[in-house]
């Protein structure tokens, strides 16, 4: 299982600093949506230049113009680009077309999707390299939601998946047992007093 850091910072300087701290311990460096909105895709280029040996994940959360937006991000240096699972099939298919042209990958973020298992299978059939079982803050606050729901949906989907939203030292072993391809840690790393040590501990917890 790969470890992905979600850098939900909003300046390029902060992103470069955080990436430098955690890069030795992670496989994938994610530029969060707020960072890309604040700094533009130059941030993707800068992170890829600083860490060419890492997979760079541009969390665009594309909802329309899939081929165009994905092409722009891949040209900037991204290895993975996200499209929302609530987007139309043609948007996802267009993004996959751009990914194929660049030899890169599309990840479909299932935030806000009610039936994550069904949609995960659908978008994988369209060419997504994996799906992200992701619950936003509002969804996490809804009655009946538990982190286990994401793990159960991922396991039931029987397709490659990542898990985002609650990955930490306590939960990461459960993420691996569920069969996740990638564990995405955000606040557990960037919110720690020592992000490098936090990333190293998460890496060590992966068997």
Automatic annotation (TrEMBL):
Reactions catalysed: D-ribulose 5-phosphate + formaldehyde = D-arabino-hex-3-ulose 6-phosphate
Enzyme superclass (EC): lyase
Pathways involved: One-carbon metabolism; formaldehyde assimilation via RuMP pathway; D-fructose 6-phosphate from D-ribulose 5-phosphate and formaldehyde: step 1/2
Residue ranges annotated for the Orotidine 5'-phosphate decarboxylase domain, each copy included: 2-202
EC code(s) of this entry: 4.1.2.43
Domain of life from the UniProt record: Bacteria
Stored CDD domains: KGPDC_HPS
Keywords: Carbohydrate metabolism, Lyase
Pfam families cross-referenced by the UniProt entry: OMPdecase
UniProt record similarity statement: Belongs to the HPS/KGPDC family. HPS subfamily.
Protein's recorded name: 3-hexulose-6-phosphate synthase
Taxonomic source organism: Cryobacterium algoricola
